[in-house]
Structure formats: C-alpha cells, structure tokens
Design goal:
The complex is a heterotetramer, with 2 copies of chain A (about 575 residues) and 2 copies of chain B (about 290 residues).
Chain A (H helix, E strand, L loop, with lengths): L3 E8 L4 H14 L3 E7 L8 E9 L10 E6 L2 H7 L3 E10 L14 E5 L1 H8 L5 H12 L4 H12 L4 H21 L16 E3 L1 H11 L4 E4 L6 H7 L9 E4 L3 H13 L4 E5 L1 H17 L3 E7 L16 H6 L8 E3 L4 H18 L2 E7 H5 L2 E3 L17 H7 L28 E3 L13 H18 L5 E4 L6 E5 L4 H13 L4 E6 L1 E3 L3 H10 L2 E6 L5 H8 L7 E5 L8 H10 L4 E2 L3
Parallel strand pairs in A: 1-4, 4-5, 5-6, 8-9, 8-10, 10-11, 11-13, 12-13, 17-18, 17-20, 20-21, 21-22
Antiparallel strand pairs in A: 1-3, 2-3, 7-14, 12-19, 16-18
Chain B lengths: L22 H14 L7 E5 L14 E4 L5 H11 L4 E7 H5 L3 H10 L4 E6 L2 E2 L5 E2 L23 H8 L3 E6 L3 H13 L4 E6 L11 H7 L1 E2 L11 H10 L4 E7 L6 H4 L17 H8 L4
Parallel strand pairs in B: 1-2, 1-3, 3-4, 4-8, 7-8, 9-10
Antiparallel strand pairs in B: 5-6, 7-10
Classes of the chains: A alpha/beta (about 575), B alpha/beta (about 290).
The structure holds thiamine diphosphate (TPP) (2 copies), iron/sulfur cluster (2 copies) and magnesium ion (2 copies).
One iron/sulfur cluster binds next to loops of chain B.
C-alpha cells in the first residue's frame, strides 16, 4: 500500500500528541485515511516521544517505517528517527535547538525553521505545534484552509484571540516552508473529501458500552485502559448512570457483579495487573451466573512491565487465570469497528449466557487512532437473556422459583431483585437448583456441566474471520491489532507471488477449533503471528487440538507493533519459531 | 399487599451454625427489623461475606448475594447504584470486614452510599476453625498464636468515625431489642450505616463469651445525655471505654449521600430503564471523532 | 490389594476425627499400613461426617469402598454408608439412637452396643469414641494393650484420671464387643511390629519447609491449607523465625517476596481463592527474580466452590494465571514423601533460578494421613543459588554491580541487602542489567529471554516418574494424590490381564514434554487421569505438543477422590472422554 | 568506615519527575536524614510503590524494592522480619497508600513493626495523568469527576491515630528542615512511623499548590505546648484543623514493637543464619507422627 508517513517528535509533555491529532483530524476531513501511532513512556514530562501519522487513500491499519516528513522539536528526535526518513524525505526542525543531520542521513533534506520564534510571534511557545503543522501542510501539499477551519472549530469556545493566534501560527509555518523548502515534497493525491471518523479502540469501546445500555462502569485507573473510563464519564450520566472510580480493581469487578446481579448492565475495564487482581471475582461471576463485562487493554507485562508498550500476553490469564473451572467468554476485536461491536456483543452474551464476558484489547488497538468508515450503530440490538416473568413468579408462590434450574440449554431464566417470589441465593459456593449450598456429588457434576455446556452448546458467534484464497499455501493466524499488519503482509506477499490467507481469531474462548482446524489443514505453512514471547495463541490452538507440523510462530515482544514487512520476512525466511528482533 | 410477617423472611434452610452461636441473634434481630419496617422480602437485598456469619443470607428470604471473602461492600455498592429502590444490607464476619475487607470498609464509609453494614464480630475466625481475627485482643491465644496475639486489635468504631462515617453503632446479639432498633435506624439513615455487632462464637472463643460481654459492655442507652453527634467526643468516649459500648455511637443528621451527588442522579432506579439504543444520538456522539 | 476398611461416622464436631486418628495411630504402631480419608463439610458442628481407615499389610495409597466395620454414631451414618459395608461386615452402632439396618443390607450384622451409656460410666460422653475404638479392636482382632498404651502416652500430661477414664472406656468397648459380637469378624494378620509414620501431605510439607531452612511463613487461613501454617507455628520460632498471619493473601505473598529479596527463605501457603489473589505478585517475583515459594492446596473450585472437597483444578492458574509472561516452576508431589522433598526442592530451585516456585498439592494429599516408611530427612541439601561475594563487591566499588547481568545460564548472581556496593533496584517494571528501568526494545527481548531461558536451559529435575512395563499397551498419566489410585488401578488391570504403565507428572512447569512424549508414543491407549472437569493436564500436554489420537481423559470432579476401580472401569469401557459419575 | 555523604545516597539515574514536582523535596529530605543519621547505603532498604512518587527508589543508592501497586507495606514487613539490622523505609503515593493499599496501611499501623512510611501525598494520581485520589478534596475536579469529587477525602492522620499508630507526623516537601527531622525521628522511633508528606504535583493538581499549602498549613512546631502523646487531643486537633498541620502529631514513647514480641525473637538477624539442617532434630520431630 502506498502511503505517506509524517512524524513529529520531541519531549513528553510538550504537546506532541495534539500536534499529531490536528494533522490526523484535518487529513480525515479532507478524505484521507490515517493511522496514528506513538512511542511514549511511563513518565509525565521529559523523555522522548514521537507520533507517526501514516496517510493513505484507502484504509490504513498498520504502522510503517517509511517516514516522509519528520518534524523534530529536539535533536534527539532527529537522532532517533532519521534512519526512518526515506530518500528524498524532509526533516523539519526547529532552529531553536541548532539541529544537525548525522552523516549517515543521505538523500534527506534538513529544513530548519524558526518554529519557536514564529510561535512566540503568533502568541506564545504553545503555538509551536501549529507552526509545525502549517509547515507540514505545505510540504505535503495540503490546503491550508482546511487547517484554518479546524482551528476555528476547535478554538471557537476559547475566544477569537485564541483562534487568531492559531491561524497566525499555521500561516506563519506554511509561509516559511513555502519560502524555504524545496517545494511540495510529497504531494498527496487529493483526498476524496468524505470526512470519516478517526478513532481509537478505546473510544469505540466506550461508545459500544454506551450503545449497549451499559449504565454503570466501575474501574481503577491504569494505562492503557483509563481512557475508557474517561470517555464514558460524560456519557453514562446522560441516562442516569455513572462511572465510579473505585479504590482498586478488586472492588471494581465486584461492584460490576453486584450491579449485574441487580439487573443493570455494568462493566469494568483494566489492564494486566488489574486483570490478575480480578481473577478470584471472575470465578464468582461464573459460579453465580451473573452477567459481567470486563475489558482488558493488554500492555507489556508481566508485573508492572512496560506500561506504555504493546503486547498480547494476557490470553492465558484471560481464559484460564482463575482457580477452579468457571466459564468465560473471551472476545478479541482487531479494529475500532470490531471493538465497538464486540463490546455490544459482550453485553448481550453476558446476559444471554449469564457469565463473565471478557474483551481482550491491546495497547495498539486501544490507543492508536485510525480512520474508520463508520461504526455499526444501527445494527446494535439488545438481548437481555432469559428472565422469569413477574407473572410466572406470582403464579409460583413463595420458595418455588429455581434460579439455577437444570434446563436443556443450560441456561436458567433469572429473576431480578425487586420481583416478588423471585428471591434466591446467589453464591460462589456450589449450590443446587434453588441456589442453596450443597456438596452433593451428583448435583456438583450437573452444575459444573450446566455452567460449561450453556456456552459450548449454544455459542453461535463466528470465531474466525478469514480472508484470502482458500487454496493459499500460507495461512497467517492472529488476533487483535495484529490483524492490520497481517492483512497488509498478505498484500506484500502476494506482490511477491506468494499467496496467503489470513485467519483472524475473533473469539478466544470458547475456542473456535472447529472453524480453524480446516483452514490449518488446508495450508502448507501456518504462521501464528502474536505479540508475546511464549506463543500463547499457538499453545491455545494446541490445547484445543488444532496442531500440525506446519504450525509455527512469529513472535514479537519488544513492546512495539508488528510492521507488515516483519511478518513478510518471517514468512519468507522462517522455519520454526521466528522472533522479530531489532 | 398483605402485611409482612416474620415468616416471610424465613427460608426452609436449616441453619449450619453451632447451637448457641451469636449469629442466631443477629439473624433474628435483622428479620425483626425488616418486618417492623414493613419491607417486602423482594425489596431487600443482602450481600454476605465468607465465614460462619456469611451464611446469614442462606436463612433469610430476600435477594441474597454471597460474595467472595472480603468483597461484600463493593458488591453492595453495585447493587444499590443499580437499583436504589432496594434496601441493601451487608453482613459478614470480623475477618471478612476488617482483615481482607479493610480497604473496602474504609472507602465505603467515606463514600456514604445508602447501605447498612452489619459486622458480626466474634473476635475470631469461626469457619476456618479458630484463628486470631483483627479484633482479637492483644494476648489472645489461638493455635496460630500460642503465645498470644501480638497485634493491637482493630478498633472498628473509632476507625469508622475517623474515616468519615455518618452512622456508627454497636449492637450485641443478646440484646435483641437494642440491636433490632439499631438495624432499623441504620436502614432508615440516609447514608452508610455501620453496626458492629458482638456475636459470640461459642465453639472457638472461650474468652469473649456472652458472660464476659455482659459484664464489660456498657449500654449507651443508659447514658441519656450522650450526644452521638459530636465526633471528637465520640472518639474520646470510645477511647476511654475501649469500644466496649453498645448503642448509637455517632451520626450526622443531614449528610450528602453518595448516589444523590452523582451528576446523573435520577429518582427512577436504573434497573427499570429500557435500553433500546438511539442510533441518532450515537451518530451525533461520533461527530466528535471527525 | 487386600485391605480392611474401618469407618466411623457421626455428626461434625463430635470427635469423629480423633476417633479415626486413634485407630490409625495404633495400627501404625502395630506395624500395619493405613490410609485415612474423610468426608466433611464447610460447617463447624452438625452435618454428617465420616472417616474411613483403610488397613493393609503393605503401603496403602488410595481409598476403597470396601468397609468391613462401620462404627455409626447416628442413624444417618448407617443410611449413608451401609451400602459400602461388605458381605459379612459389621455395623457397630450406638444403642442411644435406636439404630436399624435398611432391608437392603443383607449379609451385614448390626451390633448394637450402649456406647453412650458405657462412655458415661467411664467418665463422660466424650469417652464414647474410645468405647467404639475398644470395640473395634475386638472386631479386628487387635491387641487391646496397644490401645491402652496409646491412651497412656497420649493423655499422660492430662493426669492419671484422664488416662484411667480412657483405658476404662477402651476396655468397656472391647469387653462388650467380645460378649455380643459374633467373634472377631475380620482378623487382621499380625502387623510387622515396625512403627512407621502416619502423616498427611500438609504435615510433610511443613516439615519440609522447616528442613529446607524456611524461616518466615506468611499466610492467611484457608481450607485445606491452614494446617501448614499451624504445623509450622511451633517450628519456626525454634530458629528465631515466625509464622505471621496476614490480613489477606495479597499481603502474604508480597511479604514472602520481601523476605526473599532480603535473602531469607520464606513461603506462603494457600488454596485456590488465595492463589487467584496472588497472581499479580507472582509476576512481581518473576520479574524481580526474587526467590519465592508458594504452596497451593487445591480444593474444589471455582470461587468458594466446595471448600472441603478434593479437586485438581488450579493447574492452569498455577502455570498461566498471571498477566504477561513470567517464569514459574510448578511441582506436583503425590505422596507425603514427595511432598516433603518437593518443598525442600522448591526452596532450592527458588534460589537457584531466582523465581517463584509453586507446589501444587490437593486436598486429598494435604489432609489424608497415610503410613509412610520415613521422610528422606538425611537427603536434604541446601542450595542457596548464585550470590556475589562481599569481596567481589568490595573490589567492584560503587555503582558497578549488575544485579541482572546477562549470563550464559541466564542466572545472575545476586547481592543481599546489607552487602556494601551490592545496592540495586529490584522492580516489577522492565529493567536493564543494573536494575534501572528501561523500555529499550533490545533490552526487553534480552531480559524476557533471560528470565525464561534460565529455567528452560538448565532445569534438571526429573519431570516424569514412570513405573510399569515399557511395552504396556495402556499408559496412565496423572499427578498429585491420584498417583495412589493409578498405581492400584495398574495392579487391578494386570490382574485382569491388561498391562499398564503409570506416568506420574512430577513437574507441571516447565512441562516435561520430552520425557513424556516417548511414553505416550509407545502406548496404544493413553488415559490421562485427573480430578477436574476440563482435562487441564491433557490440555497442558496438548499445548506442549504431547498429543495423539490415543490420548483420552478420565475425569472426576464431584469432589471425591478417585477409587482405583473407577480408573479400571474407565480404561476398560472407555473411549473418548470418560467422566466418573455416581 | 569513611563518613557517609549525600553523594553516597545518590544514583546516576536522571529523574523522571516534572520540574518543580514536590517529590524532589521528599527525596532530598530523605537523603539528608539518612546521611545525618550516619547510615550506610547498604544498610538501608527502601520499598516503593507504583506512581510518580514510587520512582523515588530509582534515585537513591540503597537496596530498593519497587513492588506492585499498593503492596509496599507487606513487602517491607518481610524485609524487616528477614533482616532486622536494616533500616527499612517505605515510600509511595497517596493512591498507592490510601486507595489500593488501604487495607495494608491500617494493618501495618496496628502491627507496629519498626518501619518508616513516607506517603508522598499530592492529592492526585500523578502517573496515570490526573485522576481523583483518596485524599482529593470533596468537590475536586478531574477528568473522571468533571462535577467534582463526591467522596469525603481519606483523612490519613486521623485514621492512623485511630488505628493504633505509635508515630504519626505530617511533613511538607517545601519545609526541608522539618521534614528531614521528622524522617529522622521516624527512623529512630522503635515501631511503625507514618510521615504523610505533602508533595505537590505541579502538573495535574492546580488547586493544592505550593502556594495554597503555604497558606493553609499550620506548623505544630509553632505550638510549643502541643502534646503529641495525648491521643484524644491529637484527634481533636486534627479534626479542628482539618489535618492541615505539619509536625509530629502523635506518638507513644515506649510501645511494644512487633518483632520483639515474636515468640522466636532473636537479636541476630535471620539472614545471617546458616541453614544446614539437623536430620536428628527432624527425626525427633517426626516422632509426633508415630
Ligand atoms: C480469599 C479467601 N481467603 C481465605 C478464605 C478462608 N476463609 C473462609 S471464612 C474466613 C474467615 C472467617 O472469619 P470471619 O470473617 O470473622 O467470619 P466468622 O466465621 O468468624 O463468622 C476465611 C479466612 C476464603 N474463603 N477466601
Ligand atoms: C494494580 C494496578 N492498578 C493500577 C495501576 C496504575 N497506576 C499506576 S500509578 C497509579 C496511581 C498513582 O497515584 P499515586 O499513588 O498517588 O502516585 P503519584 O503518581 O501521584 O505519585 C495507578 C492507579 C497499576 N500500576 N497497578
Ligand atoms: S464456629 Fe463459632 S461462629 Fe461458627 S457457627 Fe460455631 S459458634 Fe458460630
Ligand atoms: S505528574 Fe505531578 S507527581 Fe508526577 S512527576 Fe509530574 S509533578 Fe510530580
Ligand atoms: Mg469472626
Ligand atoms: Mg498521588
């Protein structure tokens, strides 16, 4: 895919994020597709950070190394990133720090502009980013007007003076680049003019929760999950609901279970450390058959790990992390659209199957904005699952209702607190049909079966999304944010004459072995692509009986995303486990 | 609706408690309080902890959620936020409340959501067969502490007052009248109510027995000019009397309850809402992402 | 194996346990082998409980249904257990409750004795158990003197009056049975007179910890793990150490890590719910490379589950329960001797590999007493792992020591607080050789590899213990307390002409795939025997590449132990997954 | 041994804190206190939490254990029990201490093991970018609470006194002299010492700034007849002054320290023991099982 890469870098806490966001938003409005990704670390100010916006005329879902314009606010930015600048690319640097290019950077133009000085003139240092954006617009051949319109929109409520400063900054940058740059460096073909949406997975998941009727969200802040809380904070009160920040993750999940027991859609959201803390309570949700939704935004573990880095290493903890054996459904979206739909689905499945449903996101999916055509908001349906009617309860009388009645489907219609005669005991201890605690061995087996079979028997969510020719020799298997790099890798492979098929695993539990097995059987080379060190997805396949001599791994666990070329290289070169290294 | 009777709050379940266990009295007082308040069983939700005490939910005909050890309070918070029409009670042991549950306890107190918490305090771990609990006295001997406990006991009442609680009381399983009244007051209090309840374990605690308590407990009802609205005085009194008192210790008359302060607060309970989504609203919300 | 089954049953809290213990102890002193197992529930008084002592002239490691003498203190005992009484067996019942046999009980003698009345005469109701024991001695043809000697030993420090009461009770029971019973019902061949030891796994593990130099134990009470605390409580102060009861499991494991960091051997012990709560901190131990020992006494889960029932369902949580990927060694003893050795080994491995070592016990292994020849106390060795010497540090000077230096083995010699120049940062965040936090991708990969490879490369503990003919068509694979039933099942199968081999999995992680695979390959029918509902061991095999069409499961998850005949039946009848049901 | 200097307690690591962060002052005072007490770096162990504050261990040349969020205190307990020769300090943020760590906090106080705890209190979550913390004031506005916090703040000092603490102080990162002295006193106190330390977050907390604190904080050093040994008076003072004081708030002079009460207590630190087993002792112990 032919795309243009624009990157801005500097110290953390100096507005790098918003600079990238401005560019991405305006590009989207002009009808381009964007994919933004950042490198940042677990500190508030200082330390290098950069933000790359990859621009295309069709969907972009993966990162690229190819940087065409690098905006550098520090020399460190140049030193760290110049190797990625393509032949003919431009490094746009602030005069203030006396920038220089390393000798190795051949074919790259250094364009030094007095960004700081121009910013001061336009209204203060804070305008530096806008100056840089204005200059970038010129280098990419984008209409300045679109940026000025954006500034007007964005800053209108801050007053005319702020708008004027921003516009002045944009113009100053644009003008300076026009004067001093060697012309438009990488003229983008005109965008199609259709403004789509630029969204991260976290944003989509928050909207999904709201759309699904989530009314209570209880959570404890943690990177990269906190934003889901923050996006829901203004939304839930629209319907009388609330986001509550709890004292820890143990409280958050248990509050969610309490609300679910009461018949209200609730959820929690966390990352690895929080997931570990929630393991006991997830079992409680399974045992009491209480609808419970949990989003896990995976980051690089274990322990504190690398909180701002990408990884897909919680799979086993998501599926098997609790003591004993309780049912869990685990969904794995790979795009913002899927993230939206999966959260909606999670709420429906949680109520239909009366069990915890976990949505496995990862840092890349959660945080990186990308252009999406739209979210399927009109397709949202609400399934509250099987409930016993108040009339039926009335007819039953007291002490008759069997909350955990054995049924063919394994699903027992539930009552909701407030319904007369629906009273029951929901307990994490083993219990009989009425909910009363019992250790009877026969009952035990029935209940264990019931809890698992309700999912195994009737789970009808497609677990594998596959694309590509059925007779392709290569099968790429992966999930989460790796779906973008895999799809692009397939294109690159095909360009080299090697046909490949991509199987995105959408459901991690119950594992869609039946759907995946024939794809694996049909391929000559099955490459399981995942962002972790131990090949958790491949092992999950093995444990579910999907194996074969041709199944191998490509692993990346250095905290960065897969680049499509890395997958391509591993497919072409590899045998056995391939690890992507620097 | 026919009038509620004690029978309505009973279940067919036979109790698993040892004969003479203090928990019987707590259960009885709770059932009486609910009846006297005229509450319908289906409008009562009880969240119970793990322990002998935590079995209380098995014997009371209401909506019962028996959680994992120490996590009752957040569960109750979820329940109450979801359905503010419910009377939400929490019951559990001193270990459940003050050992593994201590963090949630302090936070629940300062949040002041309208929940009533009955801690069934026997100064010991009953269900796990007699270990030292956080309220066990310094020097208390158990298998795990053959030379006696070396920790200062948790002082739940002082802690609660210091933590910002708005209703703090202590009851005694043997004083049914007072305990029933305290539970009623707790339920009626518009905010979080703590009722630490002395509930002797006749099997494992041979020190803090009924007789012992009867001797040492001072009944605040006998002190007509005690003013439970003075925080510093309450703390002083608790200190002086080493928390060996029963009655209403501290309360704040009109206080900000948690749910009512929520920006989205509505009179109607969330559980009654129709969840049908409004795609147009969603599309409008999406505009922020262009 | 020909054995005799003696069982006592009654209400909980009425001394059933000590009755069984008396019999087991005296039998052991007489030179018999015993295996005791109980059924009890999660309440303090009331509810039916029973205690079966299986008696043999060689090692007994499994339960049996065959009950020869049933001592009944309630009618419920008879009703629940009479079906197990063999043809010719005796039900010895207390006159006080007016016992009766059901019509179905043919060939069984009801022997009604005034146990309560005799007890009152001998000194009080509390003597009832001794009366019953005395009567049992007669029925089994055991010398009364051995029991009298026992009573003298046991009660000496309580004073002569107590001894006299007990002796009187024993004699009264013995006499009554001699008068009224049809003679010695099941004369045991005389014991070999060698007193061995009667021990549970928990007792052996506590001794193992003490032998291994454990000085601090931090835990929170939970069935069936509490006893490990209780057994260690008097032991650790002998060496200045202590058992500390913490506020919860989160505190317990982190205290253990703190002590390990300080260079002292420490451990914690819990059951499933506690294990779930410890998941985050286990990752911290892995990441900081801090020696940490944890015993998990598994019980029936999930959530509160059935706290007094047997299960082996924490395997996945033990190996994979935490977020992210951190090394864990998981050992699985199956007998008290192994339990002792594995705890010793756990401390050595924890220090050698600087990582968490988890010992997976299960309720049956933890609680049920069995005769053991001895514990290998003379084989205990202490390996404190690689440490940097104070001289070396002195020579290094300040700020030079690399706590996490990359080495060939992956093991980095560690310093201990107090050593000058050995200061370093131990952090759960990713770090470089010095311990300082870094998110450098190259370092990340090196460190992740280091932490896993130190175990993978150099782990030299035999993972599989196999016994039986190498060319047997049947291979039984299992672990933990199922090893006894499996070994006995092998004997039963061979008696029926079907030769079988038993592979006990001693190490669950790193999984001994290389050792197990050839055994699996050599068998025609591989039966994985485990006490859980989802076949966790079988799935673990699959995830580690040990699979095959002939691998199938026998599962039992009703909370009771496997009986050898159940395994036999499943092997003979089965195909596919077999579930043992009632 | 040569005399210890400030340099000895520094590391080569460059700080990750924002310029102006209050944590710099806490670090400096801590280093000064250690130097003034003449402690050798290798004899100091610091357990730090997760948060901006938790990075303090990165910048101090001692044995440092950076735990998971909220679990510093049990780790420190393990360290101290293992090696009583070490000076064990704990440092972390208000979230680490009073939200997720609350349970351990209360229990550490009542255990009274000889550890010094510096809570670096900025009334906010710094590292996760500005959420409400348990010490944030009622009404405090963050992204998560656009309408202002609706919870009563945790009052750490009152709670500590009520929980049975034996040394409770509050310092201010800007008052280096007092803070250094309090840390020294805390270390010298034979038991658990809490020093809640005001350490402003200049990036996310625009309300509780240096200037604001300078205005509202009352220095107990200016109240020569304040008696920090009177528990009830201390509680009253804290209530009255809304905890906005610095200095030594409460202490008990001679109190039972945890480790010294252990049945197996020895002068020699456990870490120095030879672990060679004694098989004969083990065989003797096994006799109980015949
Ligand atoms: C996470 C976890 N840890 C430990 C236990 C074991 N456990 C069950 S009840 C209990 C404490 C009982 O004491 P308390 O709360 O005072 O209740 P009581 O039995 O005295 O009424 C414990 C530790 C558990 N169920 N879950
Ligand atoms: C179990 C867990 N939950 C959440 C987090 C995310 N987290 C990191 S620091 C922090 C709180 C920071 O606040 P505070 O303790 O006050 O420290 P400060 O940054 O203000 O110094 C949180 C919630 C985590 N690391 N681990
Ligand atoms: S053990 Fe104690 S607390 Fe538990 S039921 Fe018996 S008397 Fe009550
Ligand atoms: S964000 Fe606040 S607490 Fe964190 S380093 Fe910056 S100023 Fe300090
Ligand atoms: Mg208790
Ligand atoms: Mg803070």
């Amino acid at each position: 895919m032919e795309t243009i890469g624009w990157k801005v870098g500097g110290d953390q806490g100096e507005g790098i994020d918003s600079t990238g966001d401005v560019l991405a938003t305006v590009l989207n409005r002009l009808g381009y597709h964007v994919y933004g990704y950042k490198s940042f670390s677990s500190r508030i100010r200082g330390g290098h950070t950069h933000y790359m916006v990859r621009i295309g005329d069709r969907r972009v879902m993966a990162p690229s190394h190819a940087c065409h314009v690098l905006v550098a606010l520090t020399q460190e930015t140049i030193d760290r990133n110049v190797a990625e600048v393509v032949e003919g690319g431009v490094v746009l640097a602030d005069e203030a720090f006396g920038p220089s290019l390393p000798a190795s950077a051949t074919g790259v133009t250094l364009l030094v502009l007095p960004l700081t000085a121009m910013a001061r003139e336009a209204g203060g240092l804070i305008m530096r980013n806008m100056v840089a954006v204005g200059a970038s617009a010129q280098l990419l051949g984008l209409p300045l007007k679109a940026f000025e319109d954006y500034a007007r929109d964005k800053f209108a409520r801050k007053g005319e003076a702020v708008v004027a400063s921003n516009v002045a900054a944009l113009r100053a940058g644009h003008e300076a680049a026009r004067e001093r740059a060697p012309g438009v460096v990488f003229p983008l073909p005109p965008g199609d003019g259709r403004a789509r949406y630029v969204m991260s997975g976290n944003q989509a998941m928050a909207l999904g929760a709201y759309a699904a009727g989530c009314r209570i969200m209880a959570a404890y802040p943690i990177t990269p999950a906190t934003e889901v809380m923050e996006y829901l904070t203004p939304l839930l009160p629209r319907r009388g609901g609330a986001v509550v920040q709890m004292e820890d993750e143990l409280a958050s999940i248990v509050l969610t279970i309490g609300a679910g027991f009461a018949g209200v859609r609730a959820m929690t959201c966390t990352s690895g450390p929080g997931l570990s803390l929630m393991q006991e309570a997830i079992g409680l949700a399974g045992m009491t058959e209480t609808p419970t939704v949990l989003i896990d935004c995976q980051r690089a573990g274990p322990s504190t790990g690398m909180p701002t880095k990408n990884e897909q290493s919680d799979i086993e903890a998501l599926i098997h992390g609790g003591h004993g054996e309780a049912p869990r459904i685990v969904l794995a979206p790979g795009t913002p659209e899927q993230a939206f739909s999966d959260v909606v689905l999670a709420f429906n499945l949680a109520e239909r199957y009366q069990c915890p449903v976990l949505v496995a996101s990862d840092l890349s999916l959660s945080l990186w904005p990308q252009t999406v055509e739209s979210l399927p908001v009109r397709e949202v349906t609400i399934d509250r699952g099987e409930r016993v009617s108040s009339e039926a309860l009335l007819a039953m009388g007291k002490d008759v209702f069997q909350r955990y009645a054995l049924t063919e489907s394994g699903i027992s219609p539930r009552s909701i607190p407030g319904q007369p005669n629906g009273q029951f005991l929901a307990t994490g201890a083993e219990h009989g049909g009425s909910g009363k605690v019992t250790e009877d061995p026969v009952n035990r087996v029935q209940m264990m079966r019931k809890r698992f079979e309700k999912i195994r028997n009737s789970f009808d969510v497609p677990g594998i999304v596959d694309s590509g020719p059925a007779d392709a020799p290569v099968l790429l298997v992966g999930f989460g944010s790796n779906v973008g790099p895999m799809l692009e890798a397939r294109e690159l492979l095909e360009a080299q004459g090697l046909r490949a098929r991509v199987a995105q695993v959408r459901v991690l539990s119950p594992f869609p072995a039946a759907a995946l097995a024939p794809l694996v059987a049909a391929a000559r080379d099955v490459v399981v692509v995942e962002s972790n060190a131990t090949g958790q997805l491949r092992r999950l396949m093995g444990e579910n009986g999907v194996h074969g001599d041709c199944v191998r791994s490509v692993l990346k666990y250095d905290g960065t995303l897969f680049y499509p070329e890395e997958i391509v290289r591993s497919v072409l070169e590899g045998a056995g486990v391939q690890e992507v290294l620097r | 609706m026919p009038e509620v009777t004690l029978q309505d709050f009973k279940t067919a379940e036979k109790s698993w408690w040892c004969p003479g266990c203090g928990d019987f009295g707590v259960l009885a007082a709770l059932q009486k309080a609910l009846v006297e308040l005229g509450l319908a069983p289906e409008s009562v939700a009880i969240v119970a902890g793990i322990g002998c005490s935590g079995k209380i939910g098995n014997y009371i005909n209401s909506y019962n959620l028996h959680t994992v050890h120490g996590r009752t309070l957040p569960a109750a918070m979820g329940l109450k936020l979801a359905n503010r029409d419910l009377t939400v009670l929490v019951a559990g042991g001193d270990g459940d409340a003050y050992a593994i549950g201590m963090g949630h306890f302090i936070h629940a107190l300062r949040r002041n959501l309208d929940i009533t918490y009955l801690v069934m305090d026997n100064h010991i771990y009953g269900l796990t067969k007699g270990q030292t609990s956080p309220t066990s006295e310094h020097g208390f001997v158990t298998k795990g502490n053959p030379a006696g406990s070396i920790e200062r006991p948790v002082l739940p009442l002082s802690l609660a007052v210091a933590a910002g609680a708005t209703f703090v009381a202590q009851g005694f399983s043997s004083n049914q009248k007072q305990l029933t009244r305290l539970i009623q007051q707790g339920i009626q209090h518009h905010g979080f109510s703590l009722i630490n309840t002395i509930s002797p374990c006749v099997t494992y605690n041979k020190v803090n027995t009924y007789d012992w308590y009867k001797k040492v407990l001072f009944n605040l009802d006998d002190l007509p000019d005690y003013d439970p609205r003075d925080k510093v005085k309450a703390l002083g009194m608790l200190h002086e009397r080493e928390e060996l008192v029963t009655g209403l210790i501290y309360y704040e008359e009109s206080t900000a309850e948690f749910a009512h302060q929520l920006p989205g607060y509505r009179e109607e309970a969330l559980v009654h809402q129709d969840l049908t989504p409004d795609p147009d609203e969603l599309l409008k919300l999406m505009e922020a992402y262009r």
